[in-house]
Amino acid sequence: MIKTDVLIIGAGAVGCALARELSKYDIKVTVCDKNDDVGGDASKSNSGLFSTSATMPVGTLECRLRTVAHSMIMKICEDLEVPVIECGSIAPVLYPEQIESAKGLIERAFLNGVYDYELLPAKDILDMEPTLNPEILGGIYSPRDRQTNQFIFVSAMAENAAENGVEFLLDCKVTGMDVSDGKIHRVHTENGDIEAGWVINAAGLYCDEIAKMADECDFKVNPRKGEFFVFSNDTPVKVSHIISSVPSPKTRGVLVIPTVDGNMLIGPTADDVEDKTDRKTTSEGLESIKTQALNMVPGLHFEDTITQFVGVRPARTPEGYDIRFSEKVKGYIGISGVRSTGLTASVAIAFYIVHGMKEAGVTLERKEGWKRTRKGIVSFADKTAEEKDTLIAADPLYGKIICRCEQVTESEILQAIHRPVGARTLDAVKRRVRAGMGRCQGGFCSPLVIEILARELGIPETEVRKRGEKAFMLDK
Ligand SMILES: Cc1cc2nc3c(=O)[nH]c(=O)nc-3n(C[C@H](O)[C@H](O)[C@H](O)COP(=O)(O)OP(=O)(O)OC[C@H]3O[C@@H](n4cnc5c(N)ncnc54)[C@H](O)[C@@H]3O)c2cc1C
How far apart are CA 151 and CA 148, in angstroms? Predict the structure, then answer.
């Protein structure tokens, strides 16, 4: 049995941000997750935007936390060497009836303290983003909207937390709890029991199930599905800003997103579904994305789609963020409703909870020698010829290309495997260093990555998994 001061259930953006924040203090922190990797469910399948709170409902907890997070996030990303592009966003006004709603959004942005959210004339917008539909009537420009690699952001926080002493238990699903006399005595997992002073529910889509185990559930999770296209990075028409439909309270609508990795994401839809595990794209969903995107950026080449994916938002009824220090069950903290904005808000949620724990009387002594920074994996593909020579001179495995499409080297893959909370599966390697992300989607490099994983983890190749418990790559 494991004993810990704080148990965080869930290693998505929220759980990993919390783990990093709590790792500053002299306490034992453990994170467990049902998945075989950190990165979460929703947290790894989203638009990767760090947006301002311009369009948020005024005065809500979600709005406040996102505002705080937006102001902190660049420094955190700098400390953790997480790539971010500050590309700004444009919401083109396509129809006369959108002008009134655009004006309403500008007023709301002002109330939310986002003063640089402006409605500009068509000419100014087209000068900034010539790929847009020339028929636009104007557009809302938001200069401080940013894009990141969502997985690198979350895994960087996890790596930094692990370096600062946090223990990560993966493939470790929470299955039940012993609760009596207003206290959680034990948390049961598929890998044994855990005793914790504090139990924090950061389980995203499954936070209602965990809340029921803790006898603290008065809400329902409503999975809200979002479908995306991924374009190859050599597509001829690329946007330089995030292009979004004029946002509504439920969603920012379809976006055309330039990513830090040089390709484009187009999506998402926003459809309420029953099944939390629904990861199927649909012809209707994809068709509606295509129509909306082409309306904004007519030159997009949908034939350059290399893959499609689905992310599921952990929305809730009643709607909105809920962060609860239970009065009924001592030591239980529930987080729910972290739906469309949680990648950004995660870092503020972490501070909010730590502050709440201090208010609740927990003594948190600052740890000596806490490491604020984390080094990223140096990408060979991004370097000049001269820089590539220097990398190869220092480490000859930088000279061995494994993924031809994305120019990923063996050195990068070894680093992905051997760093704290390192890669154990093909997908985990792909997310960390992009091997298999390119046009051939792993057709060429998968056998080589299997070989490397088997060698480095000391397992037979037949034991190497794509992801998940039973997804073995080769027949046994
Ligand atoms: C289509 C889409 C687009 C989005 N775009 C953006 C955006 O641009 N910007 C932004 O800021 N946000 C965006 N979001 C929202 C953001 O992705 C979420 O708010 C955020 O990822 C929620 O993080 P989380 O850690 O709460 O949940 P998750 O990432 O889902 O993590 C929860 C973790 O809990 C684990 N877990 C669940 N049950 C158990 C159990 N029983 N035992 C152990 N572990 C368990 C899961 O395995 C998972 O790893 C988007 C979301 C979607 C789906």
Answer: 9
For residues 229 and 302, state if they share a domain.
yes
C-alpha torsion angle, residues 107, 109, 110, 112 (rounded to 10): 130
Task: Check if 445 has its Cβ closer than 6 Å to any atom of ligand 1.
Answer: no
**What's the average model confidence in pLDDT over 78-104?**
94
Q: How many Å apart are CA 373 and CA 81, to the nearest integer?
A: 8
Q: Is 247 in the pocket of ligand 1 (CB under 6 A)?
A: no
Q: How far apart are CA 113 and CA 103, in angstroms?
A: 16
Query: How many Å apart are CA 444 and CA 323, to the nearest integer?
Result: 46
**For the domain that residue 265 is a member of, what is the CATH number?**
3.30.9.10
Q: Which domain holds residue 412?
A: 385-463
Task: Choose which residue among 2, 33, 230 to substitute to test ligand 1 binding: the one with the highest number of ligand atoms within 8 A of its C-beta.
Answer: 33
Q: What is the mean pLDDT of the chain?
A: 95
- Under the banding of pLDDT at 50, 70 and 90, the label for residue 253 is confident
Indicate the number of domains in the chain. 3
Question: Global pTM?
Answer: 0.96
The answer to whether 205 touches 15, Cβ cutoff 8 Å, is: no
Q: How many CA atoms lie within 13 A of 460 on its CB side?
A: 6
Residue of 206, 254, 269, 344 to mutate, ligand 1, most atoms within 8 A of C-beta? 206
Strand (E) or helix (H) holding 32: strand 29-32
Give a yes or no: residue 155 inside a domain: yes
* Residues whose CB falls within 8 Å of the CB of residue 229, separated by 6 or more in sequence, listed in order: 265, 266, 267, 286, 289, 290, 302, 305, 308
The Cα 424–Cα 428 span in angstroms is 6
